[in-house]
Amino acid sequence: MAIAWSEKASSMEVLASPPSLSPPVILTQDELKKIAAYKAVEFVESGMVLGLGTGSTAKHAVDRIGDLLRLGKLKNIVGIPTSKKTQEQAVSLGIPLSDLDSHPSIDLAIDGADEVDPYLNLVKGRGGSLLREKMVEGACKKFVCIVDESKLVNHLGGSGLAMPVEVVPFCWKFTARKLQNMFESSGCVAKLRNDGKGEAFVSDNGNYIVDLYLKKSIGDLVVASDGILRIAGVVEHGMFLDMATTVIVAGELGITINNK
Ligand SMILES: O=C(CO)[C@H](O)[C@H](O)COP(=O)(O)O
């Protein structure tokens, strides 16, 4: 049976509230992201192999890990970055890096998300790194997702923002049309993502991203996922179903930790 975040909220523990000050402190979205990220880094222990996420929320976590390494509070960390951008950030912070070939089992990954439903299914990839994120986070014993409360939705696609699908550049219009037709009854419009300079956005893997905009729920998520992956030309999609083991949500009322 479908549930909504508002129903779930009554059963969630608020772990930390901002201090009660007068006048009330309004935290920015970025401050909330940082609070969630710092909380997640409390799960990190010396000696761990860590999946390092991508995006403005994950960036705070990577910064924090770098700080703790520099201060000697964490030791012997190996990071597995989920994008070239995170790789550059981690190198600049002196975090030792490796890859899935050498470290096929990861202790813990920390990453953001674009949407989180009440079952802790996610949409990821508005930053364009969904393939590497799915590979790394799929290899994790624990995947802690960190979001501010604006990312909570009652069903995936519910924010009205993009549901990303990574496709090969070859005949991308053909693939985009197939995707749009597949979700026609959900009012789907498929658009090629651009890089903001008039060209197609190209992922770290040399692929394009087709963003699906949905007016209605796409129904059964496993059926939708399987359907998308059966289209030749699709590399991966941004639905992360049953992957997050914990979602940390930072909001004006404090932090909630939601475990699978
Ligand atoms: O999936 C992602 C990148 O591919 C990001 O984690 C997601 O887009 C959230 O980004 P942000 O933390 O900047 O809101």
UniProtKB/TrEMBL annotation:
Xref: InterPro entries: NagB/RpiA_transferase-like, Ribose-5P_isomerase, Ribose5P_isomerase_typA_subgr, Ribose5P_isomerase_type_A
Catalytic activity: aldehydo-D-ribose 5-phosphate = D-ribulose 5-phosphate
Key words of the record: Isomerase
Presence of the UniProt keyword Isomerase in the record: yes
EC number annotated for this UniProt entry: 5.3.1.6
GO BP terms in the entry: pentose-phosphate shunt, non-oxidative branch
Protein's pathway: Carbohydrate degradation; pentose phosphate pathway; D-ribose 5-phosphate from D-ribulose 5-phosphate (non-oxidative stage): step 1/1
One family name in Pfam for this protein: Rib_5-P_isom_A
Keyword Isomerase annotated: yes
Xref: CDD domains: RPI_A
GO terms for MF: ribose-5-phosphate isomerase activity
Protein name: ribose-5-phosphate isomerase
Organism name: Hibiscus trionum
Upper taxonomic lineage: Eukaryota, Viridiplantae, Streptophyta, Embryophyta, Tracheophyta
